Each structure stands twice: as C-alpha cells, then as structure tokens.
Amino acid sequence: FQRHTFTHLEQLPYGIGSKIIERVKIGQKSMEIEYASGRIIGISVYPLDLPDLKGFLLKIKDITAEKSFERTAGGAGSYFSYVDLVSIYTHHIKNLLTPLKFTALSLRRELTEPKQIEKVERMVQHIEKINQHVRAFYSRVRTKPIEFRKVNIRKVVGHVKQLLNNDLINNGIIFEFYQNGNELVYADEIHIQQILSDLVQNAIDALKNQKGVRRITVTVRRSENRCPYCGAPFVQIEISDTGPGIKKEDLDRIFNLGFSTKAEGWGLGLYVVDKMVKENRGIIRVYSEVGKGTTFVLYFHPATPDAVGCVEQKVKEV
Asked: In terms of pTM, does the model score above 0.85?
C-alpha cells in the first residue's frame, strides 16, 4: 500500500476493493478480511460528507499479529509480552481518534465565525497531539527489550514513593517500607518499578474513599518459598493496604484482560502486571478480605549465582 497510489477501490490488491464495496452497501463500517494464507486485513470505513468532498475515508491495516494475540491470549498456560497488548490498545485508541479528527475538520469547513473556527482548530491540534503521544509511547515500549540485571528493591521503592508522593499526601495515606537486609533481585529494573508503581497506585485508588487509617505497607524479605528448579529462596515483596478489600468471587478474575472493579476501568493494569511478573520469571499472588484490605505478594529470583543461572536458562528455553 505504501508504495502505490490508488484512485479506485478496484485497484486495491488481494480483492480488497470488491469486498469493501459489498460490505459498505449493507452498512458495515468495520470489517476483517482473512485470506487462506492466514493474513488478516482490518478495514474501518468513515463516511465523508463535506461541501466539496463526499465519499468514504478508509483505514486499512494488516492486523494479523494482533488477531493472533487476541485468539490465543485466553488459552491455558499461554504467555505473551505486554508489548503485544500495548500494540492492540494503541491501535484501538488511534481508531477512535481518526473519526474525531475528521468530524472536527468537517465542522471547521462549515463554520464562518473566526472564534468558532479557532476553537475547532485547537480541537484538531489536541487530537493530533494525543496521536503523537500514542505513537511515541508505543515506539518506546516496543524498542525496549527485557534486560535482566541486579535490582536494588529499596532503591526502586524509593523512586515509586517519590513518583506517587503527591497522591499519598493529598489522600492522607501513610506509606511504610520494611526490608530485612538488602536483598537484590535478578530482573528488569524498569519492569520492577512499573509493577510496584501500578500496585501502589491501585492501593491508593482503593484507599481514597476509605474511612479510618489509610496505610500502604511494602515489605521485602527472603522468602521461605524456593524456586523448584534451582532451589534458591525467592525474594518476597508484599504490597498491603487497609482498603475495602476484594470480593472473593472477583479474586480469580482480577488478572483477566478486560476485568475491572472500577466503573471506568479498562481491565488492563493488573493484566499487564501479571504478564510483566511472568516475563521476569516471577510469581504473583493476591490475598484479600472485604473490610480489611488486600495484599499482593511477588516472588522474584535473588541475584545469586545459582538463581541468575536458573533465570538465564529459562530465558534460553523460551
């Protein structure tokens, strides 16, 4: 598509043009066309009704990788990089922004009042800025492969607290950190910071309307649980809050894609946390009691020779 200019739908390759015409006639505005080769083409149709331009705007994209991810993400034992998930969500966001932009451009053509035109132009600029941020975010994420190294948890927790300190203060939340010794874990430092940041932010959200003492406690210690492969004791990280807790029937679903207890939640945060923990060859567990609070427990390999060798071997086996 990028190397050719097409003036008629019939000129599009793979018979896409005729299929678009068939489906537009019956009012279909989005479609997926799958070929015998396994390739899947996603098409979105946006009607254009401008004074000097009428017709349809087509957005055509190869979505083979995304559909493959969606079809298999729910499989038992499946394991996927959160980068694939980011790809799907950025694609959906851009799909939402496209009709907004063209509606604004259509409105601008019809307006005559300078002040109204200026407002619409600002709207178009904001939409384009969002688009740029989405593209930049995805570009940064997809080019950052996982990098295992020795990670100082005390240092990471300090960064997370500094990042979220305003939210903690504004909501009257006590933040406590305890660590026995100075255990290092073998993982990706950026991932560990993101995991802890997301879990602490979730705890803050849970405590915002909570009566009584609002407290978040992060505890790091050498675990009694050991890696079943190398026998090394895990480094255990607990993130506890005194929030309202999670219903028993929801505990088994909180890591599922699309599930959220928040009215406006996307059901993305804990799903991504779970995937990042697994990418770092870790384990995550959650314990909660309604009215008392919630605790997330993370297990990571220590930065000892045996454990490092174990992680490296697991990475090679993937």
From this structure: no
